[in-house]
Write a structure and sequence with these properties.
The chain is an alpha+beta fold and 476 residues long. Helix content is 41%, strand content 19%. The strands form five sheets. It has a five-stranded antiparallel β-sheet, covered by helices on one side. It has a four-stranded mixed β-sheet with strand order 8-7-6-11. The chain has a three-stranded antiparallel β-sheet with strand order 12-13-14. It starts with a strand and ends with a strand.
Length: 476
């Protein structure tokens, strides 16, 4: 008799979701699904609004990464205006995007996944949370909070507030950065570099301790996609699309972002609100790809900054020469490398006189009826695709977010973990924690909602093939 295990809600992620695991008659894992149980509807209720409003509206998609939507939406607006965004405005947008990477990756590594990595998968959930991390490793928890606060402070300095800043607009940005603010941020950087170095040491220690998990979490071949510069370097704001196959072969390169519909198709399933994008030329079965920090480090030729390139070389020791790093556990490592890279880029930008220029916004009316804005959000490539009428009112909106693009890979990861750690009559905390942590490796961002930071509520149900409830467990 087959059975289904439900894990709901999934905690320490941004948004609401549940997992179901289907067992066959022999008690073996037959399938696993990651269900997103909330509906947002931005693509529908924005119809009829002016594209000028979209940066402010779509930033509300998420309270954790509003900057990513702000920038992608502004870039779509740039395309509708048909203007060249002033170079100082581009540099200022890049600066905010790097600040966003720092604060979001710090949140994911230290505060969301840190309890799993540092306290262990089998630790009592009453302790395996942020409060437990603070009690056991106060210096690490404080470091993560400081690093995130640095990114938030930089965003607030540019946009007047750290959450939902109304700063980047079609054509440029509203304000620049004064010399006093630049010097203050530069003065904080040395301490931030030290924190990242300490985190890298901690993670490398964890790799040895968590070898079973490292070998299982998302360890399967897939495609990887991300933006790269014209020289193939790591890129987070502009650049062109590159897709790398599991054997390391580049199958798409220097594709203009506005041509993304030629690469990406989407499917839907009735059991989740999250879409299933895939690489269109290979179809949904073979076209699974991953985005985000792991993918970006797999598709780029180099990082382009000294410290990040040093770590990137070590990162690539975890794969065969010329091949991508497949294991999703290495998303954590990739986040730390990207924080390092972002700090180096922030230092470079703050030392560039271009930020002192006063022309930071180009003004125009509607010159194009279609605008596509693409940037690299912390969790992966983000697409905003708008169609407007001649008055700038939206007729079509499509948002392709990073979490959706990792959806196929997340589902496969859950199944892989369950197959390795689940036995028919064993529904213990260690198993549930590992399944959840497999999802956290991707740092999914399902909505703008905040998440549980303390105790870890969990409801697990075991159903027979006839739908009868066989067993359940609650964790308040």
């Amino acid at each position: 008799m087959s059975r289904t295990i439900h894990i709901e809600p999934i905690t320490r992620i941004e948004g609401h979701a549940k997992i179901s695991i289907q067992l066959d008659a022999q008690g073996r894992v037959a399938d696993a699904r990651f269900h997103v149980t909330e509906f947002r509807g931005f693509e529908k209720f924005c119809i009829g609004r002016s594209f000028w409003e979209m940066p402010g509206i779509t930033a509300r998609v998420c309270g954790i990464c509003p900057v990513s939507h702000l920038l992608a939406s502004s870039k779509a607006g740039d395309a509708i205006l048909g203007v060249r965004t002033p170079a100082p405005a581009v540099s200022l947008r890049r600066l905010m995007n790097y600040a966003q990477l720092v604060q979001s990756h710090a949140l994911s590594f230290f505060l969301l996944s840190g309890p799993d990595l540092l306290l262990g998968m089998d630790t009592d959930p009453a302790q395996r949370n942020l409060m437990g991390l603070i009690a056991a490793h106060p210096e690490i928890a404080r470091g993560g909070i400081r690093l995130r606060a640095f990114g938030q402070h930089l965003i607030r300095t540019l946009g007047e507030r750290s959450v939902h800043p109304s700063w980047s607009v079609p054509g440029g940005v509203r304000s620049g950065l004064n010399a006093e603010a630049k010097q203050k941020i530069l003065g904080e950087l040395p301490a931030m570099f030290t924190l990242v170095d300490q985190a890298l040491d901690l993670f490398k220690d964890a790799l040895d301790r968590l070898k079973d998990e490292v070998d299982v979490y998302g360890e399967f071949p897939s495609l990887f996609m991300g933006l790269v510069g014209e020289d193939g370097g790591l890129e987070h704001y502009d650049g062109r699309l590159r897709i790398v196959a599991a054997d390391g072969k580049i199958i798409e390169d220097q594709v203009p972002p506005e041509n993304f519909p030629e690469l990406i198709a989407e499917e839907e399933e009735p059991w989740t609100y999250l879409k299933f994008p895939y690489y269109a030329p290979l179809g949904p079965e073979k076209g699974m790809y991953r985005v985000g920090p792991l993918a970006r480090l797999n598709v780029c030729d180099f990082a382009g900054t000294r410290k990040a390139d040093r770590e990137l070389r070590q990162f690539r020791h975890y794969c065969a020469p010329g091949k991508p790093v497949n294991g999703s556990f290495f998303y954590h490592y990739a986040r730390l490398i990207e924080i390092l890279h972002a700090l180096e880029r922030i230092e470079e930008l703050l030392g560039d006189d271009i930020l002192d220029a006063r022309h930071i916004r180009s003004r125009a009316g509607v010159n194009q009826n279609v605008g596509i804005g693409v940037c690299e959000a912390p969790r992966g490539t983000l697409f905003h695709h708008y169609q407007v009428d001649d008055h700038g009112l939206l007729e079509k909106v499509n948002l392709i977010i990073a979490t959706g693009q990792n959806n196929l890979a997340m589902n496969r990861t859950i199944k892989q973990i369950a197959q390795r750690f689940l036995t028919a009559e064993r529904l213990d905390e260690g198993l549930l924690n590992r399944v959840e942590h497999g999802i956290r490796a991707y740092d999914p961002c399902l909505s703008c909602s905040t998440h549980e930071a303390g105790r870890m509520p969990l409801h697990l149900e075991l159903h027979g093939a006839d739908g009868r409830l066989l067993d359940e467990a609650h964790r308040a």
